[in-house]
Specification:
The structure holds two protein chains of two kinds. Chain A is of the alpha/beta class. Chain A has helices at 3-16, 19-45, 80-85, 119-140, 145-151, 173-207, 211-215, 220-257, 259-277, 285-291, 294-304, 307-335, 343-363, 370-375, 382-389, 396-424, 434-443, and strands at 50-56, 71-75, 94-98, 110-113, 159-162, 168-171. Classes of the chains: A alpha/beta, B alpha/beta. Chain A binds chain B through residues 3, 6-7, 10, 14, 204-205, 208-210, 212-218, 220, 426, 428, 436, 439-440, 443-445, and chain B through 12-14, 47, 50-54, 72, 75, 77-79, 81-88, 96-97, 99-102, 141, 144-145.
């Protein structure tokens, strides 16, 4: 094994064995899974039946509020004061009090509870009341309620891409953007998180004063690259573990608690398929509704993306982008004595990175504009920006240009960083300025 | 036979010239002292020998061959700015550094065990460096420097920060290594250790070499013909005996004895001096006073600085 291999090994294992790495690896997925599952879980919790005692002093809503599976309205002809007094001796969860003033257009309605009801219950009550009042107003103005309902329209816009050879494929812009954006965020986070680790590692070696011992055995460039590659492997390991763990936790929880949802989607697919065979014109109302179901659109969109090509591009931009920035972070680390001094040098490195993230968001509005083109070709911004564009379809020549420039970019920054690094690591107790760094680049050969 | 030869080395930095036509020759199995005040260029020269930086001009030869990357495994280097990874375990760290010098892991482990036992620190193997005291860490650093049995050992200010006990231990180890065939370059501005350890020296000041050679010869060439006589007897009689041809520099009494420093003006023969004083006093000791390296060091540097500024 070469010396660079020994360095990579040390950089890798010294980090992977750390307690903080293990804790982060376990906590990360738990948090991720929690973010995904907790809202669903909370939604599930809401699904206990709420018994609503309605006291309607206005007399407008008598039996007009419609109960559903989870919310049961129960009109009681008692007054609000007795209802409140006896609240705890009844099994009602909430009391809905509609004061008489509602007739005069004062829409203040009160809800009393023992335990805070879920948002969905509140929303259900509110929408029920609002709908009824709207209906009444329409009726009072002699407008046909049924007519109004019929005029409401929902358009299902399906996007299709026509290739030069005439082939047409249905796409889902929303899905494409989402996938691209997730990829871009991953690259962005990875570069930041592990780029800074490279910098810290270099500073650590410098402040520990071990660096001179090491570079009497290996070339500074080997030490720098060993560190960058070793930390990249740590990052990849962490991401891999996160993915596996998150997926496992999510799947387990999902199947245990939320299995029903999956079945529903399958059923819809089946019904749709069998119905479609009968021909679109006979298709009943139900199917049109289902066709617009977002879930199905997403699934259809997913099928259209070439995942292998996308994944390979992702890996390329992920690694090349990290190498480009990793070298720069290493150079910063070598030029300073401690982390507090990094500020002035961090700015020019982080600005393009943050800029690319900002641009990525605006590109979602206009994926084929000149802004998108330039930022997805310039090496400093291309890893993040190109990732957003990729699932939307990028001309091959643009992709090739971007990749070649990025490869050239990381070779160039690594070479420059190497020059700064080997001078910087041996400089102690001196505040380094930009002009000093330019001198290092010019003078030493 | 020279193990290392550096010829006409020059190195220019952005702001100043660090080395100006410096040549040194280091004999095999000797201790070579590289002396000079701070900022003279010693560390730059050492870094060039270690191939950390490249010279602008000049050539280096190791064992007759042009100095190149493969020689790294033949050199052990203890820099002035030295340290260890604080969070790493002692044993692991020593293994890592040995592997970087080209040793096989199993071989390094065996040798480390021997050294750790010899320095009585075997139970530190699994301790983190941050748990060790400074002196302990220095022992580890020394071991990692010599573990791969380098032909050339370069020690830059090795005693700085060492307590007297460890300094002594280190001195003994250095001399032992020389006996076993190692060549040692020893850089310092602390002159006391030079006389005890070094065979040859080179004195560098303001990026130029201003003096080099065998320590004994240098001291002899700088001697001022001063002798120290320890005697019992009458000081006036002693003074009278040295009336011509001698200069009495100073005297001090030490109990029954008097110690006098005498400079010979005509001949530099201690026998002549003895003949003159023997009839007058009872001589208990005679010793030629050679200038200390410290004195030579200071006078040479003052001389050069004076030439440059005056």
């Amino acid at each position: 094994m070469g010396k660079i291999g020994i360095i990579i090994q040390r950089e890798y294992f010294s980090r992977v064995k750390k307690k903080s790495f293990i804790i982060m690896t376990v906590l990360g997925p738990v948090l991720m899974a929690a973010i995904m599952i907790v809202p669903l879980w909370i939604a599930m919790q809401d699904k206990t039946v709420q018994r609503i005692q309605v006291i309607d002093d206005s007399g407008l809503f008598q039996n007009l509020l419609q109960s559903d599976e989870y919310n049961q309205f129960d009109f009681t002809p008692i007054n609000i004061f007795t209802a409140k007094e006896n609240f705890y001796s009844t099994d009602y969860n909430v009391i809905l009090y509609i004061p008489p003033s509602i007739i005069k257009g004062n829409y203040n309605v009160q809800l009393f509870y023992k335990k805070q009801p879920g948002v969905s219950t509140e929303m259900f009550i509110r929408s029920q009341l609002e709908e009824r009042i709207t209906d009444m107003k329409l009726f009072a103005n002699k407008i046909d309620v049924e007519l109004i309902k019929k005029t409401k329209t929902k358009i299902n816009l399906s996007t299709n891409k026509i290739e030069e050879d005439g082939k047409s494929t249905q796409t889902s812009t929303a899905v494409n953007m989402f996938i691209g954006f997730v990829g871009a965020i991953l690259i962005y986070i990875f570069i930041f998180l592990y780029g800074v680790q490279v910098m810290r590692g270099v500073i650590e070696e410098k402040t520990n004063r071990i660096v001179e011992v090491i570079i009497s055995s290996v070339r500074p460039f080997q030490l720098m690259m060993g560190k960058i590659v070793g930390i990249a492997l740590v990052g990849l390991t962490q991401f891999l573990l996160w993915t596996i763990l998150t997926f496992t936790i999510y799947t387990v929880t999902y199947t245990v608690f939320l299995g029903k949802i999956d079945n529903n989607i399958e059923q819809i697919e089946k019904i749709k398929q069998s119905q479609l065979e009968k021909g679109p014109f006979n298709a009943p109302e139900e199917i049109k509704k289902m066709d617009s179901s977002e879930v199905i659109q997403i699934m259809r969109g997913l099928k259209q993306i070439d995942f292998v090509a996308l994944f390979l591009c992702f890996v390329f931009y992920f690694i090349a982008g990290y190498l480009l920035y990793g070298a720069l972070f290493a150079a910063i680390g070598s030029a300073v004595d401690n982390e507090a001094d990094t500020q002035q040098f961090m700015l020019p490195v982080t600005v393009p990175l943050i800029l690319s993230f900002v641009v990525a968001q605006s590109i979602m509005q206009n994926p084929e504009g000149s802004l998108s083109f330039w930022f997805s070709v310039i090496p400093f911004t291309s890893p993040v920006v190109m990732m957003v564009r990729l699932p939307l379809g990028v001309p091959v020549w643009q992709l090739a240009t971007s990749m070649i420039l990025l490869a050239a970019g990381f070779i160039a920054t690594t070479w420059l960083a190497g020059k700064i690094y080997r001078t910087g690591i041996l400089m102690y107790g001196k505040k380094i300025t930009y002009s000093e760094i330019f001198k290092w680049l010019r003078f030493n050969s | 036979m020279n193990l290392l030869l550096a010829e006409h080395i020059e190195k220019q930095y952005a702001h100043h010239k660090a080395l100006d036509d410096v040549s040194i020759a280091v004999q095999k199995q000797s201790v070579f002292g590289l002396l000079g005040p701070n900022g003279a260029g010693k560390t730059t020269l050492i870094r060039i020998i270690n191939q950390i930086t490249a010279p602008d001009k000049g050539e280096l030869f190791f064992n007759g061959e042009k100095l190149q990357a493969k020689h790294v495994s033949q050199i052990g280097y203890l820099p002035e700015e030295r340290g260890l990874y604080k969070k790493m375990k002692v044993g692991e760290q020593a293994l890592y550094l040995a592997q970087l010098k080209g040793m096989k892991k199993s071989e390094a482990r065996e040798k480390l065990k021997i050294w750790f036992k010899r320095f009585d620190i075997y139970n530190w193997w699994d301790k983190k460096v941050e748990e060790l005291s400074k002196g302990m860490a220095q022992k580890i650093q020394f071991i990692t420097t010599v573990l791969h049995q380098p032909q050339l050992l370069i020690l830059d200010e090795p005693f700085s920060g060492f307590d007297p006990i460890n300094t002594n231990l280190l001195k003994e180890e250095i001399l032992k290594l020389r006996e076993e065939g190692t060549t040692i370059i020893f850089s310092t501005h602390n002159m006391e250790s030079v006389e005890a350890i070094c065979d040859h020296i080179a004195l560098i000041n303001q990026s130029k070499k201003i003096l080099d050679g065998n320590v004994r010869e240098i001291r002899n060439s700088f001697k001022k013909n001063i002798f120290e006589i320890t005697f019992k007897g009458n000081l006036i009689a002693f003074t009278n005996a040295l009336w011509t041809g001698y200069e009495l520099l100073n005297t001090k009494s030490d109990g029954d004895y008097t110690i006098a420093q005498v400079k010979t003006l005509s001949s530099n023969n201690p026998n002549e001096l003895l003949k003159s004083v023997l009839p007058e006093v009872e001589v208990h000791g005679l010793q030629e006073i050679l200038p200390s390296m410290n004195e030579i060091f200071i006078s040479k540097i003052k001389e050069q600085n004076h030439l440059q500024h005056g």
